[in-house]
Amino acid sequence: MKPKKMNKIFLLLISVCSFSWSQDVSKALLKEVTDKLLAQENVSLQFNYNLYSAEANINQETSGKVQLKGKKYRFEYLGIIQLNDTKNTYTIVPENEEVSIVSNEDAESEMNPAKILSFYNEGYRFQWDIAQNVGNKKVQYIKLIPIDSNADIAHILLGIDNQKKEVYKVIETGKNGTQTTITITKYETNTNSPPDLFSFDEKKYIELGYYIIKE
Asked: What is the DSSP string of 31-96?
């Protein structure tokens, strides 16, 4: 066998082994994160959200809060409250004095805020990426590449707090260059929460004069 051909085969083998290692260590870390999440009775997150688009000259930053318990969630963002009690999704818009109610059977395609911590489990290939020190955190990034070549997303960088095994940052880059970043500023588990945190009191909002839309 000629030396050049041998070199090509050797480089190919290194590439395959490197890709396999990158996939394996990425999956192992993500499994630790998912297992820890599933072991919690409830999770409460506060986050910052940044939208950047050079093309559209947009650089906006907002903040929000998500509280999770099993498949139930309460999502507060831009003055809007969204509740899910596993049967229906309730979107409360105080500015418009309006509530929309959608059955979960009809809302499967809607964005579920609870997926901020587990969206990566389907539809992506993994690559081990850079590590950064952020304060007292060591953040390990994993690059997620959509399996669907027609996806609008070019890639996602998922930052994991390597010590706590918790999602710290999600950086999504679109094929058009738009970048959205979610940074978790507070992560709490197993907190004492009101029993009605994920419940919707329709009578209360009717008395307040809200318009109720049932889709």
From this structure: HHHHHHHHT-S-EEEEEEEEEEETTTTEEEEEEEEEEEETTEEEEEETTEEEEE-SSEEEEEEGGG
Residue 192: CB atoms within 10 A of its CB come to 5
Rounded Cα distance between 24 and 209, Å, is 55
Ordered mean pLDDT values, 10 residues apiece, the chain (215 residues): 42 35 76 87 91 90 90 90 92 95 71 67 87 93 90 91 92 92 92 90 95 90
Count CB neighbours of 134 within 10 A: 12
Rounded to whole angstroms, how far apart are CA atoms 173 and 54? 12
The length of the chain, given as a count of residues: 215
What number of other Cβ atoms are within 10 A of residue 184's Cβ? 19
Q: Which helix (H) or strand (E) holds 142?
A: strand 137-146
Closest CA to 164 of 182, 143, 184: 184
Q: 81: which strand partners?
A: 76, 92
Domains of the chain, earliest start first: 3-214 (2.50.20.10)
